[in-house]
Amino acid sequence: MKENFTVITMKTKNGKTLYLKEGFGKSLEWTFNKQEAIWFPLVIDAEKCAKNYFKTFNNYGFETFEYYI
Question: Who contacts 56 (Cβ-Cβ below 8 Å, separation ≥6)?
Answer without folding.
Answer: none
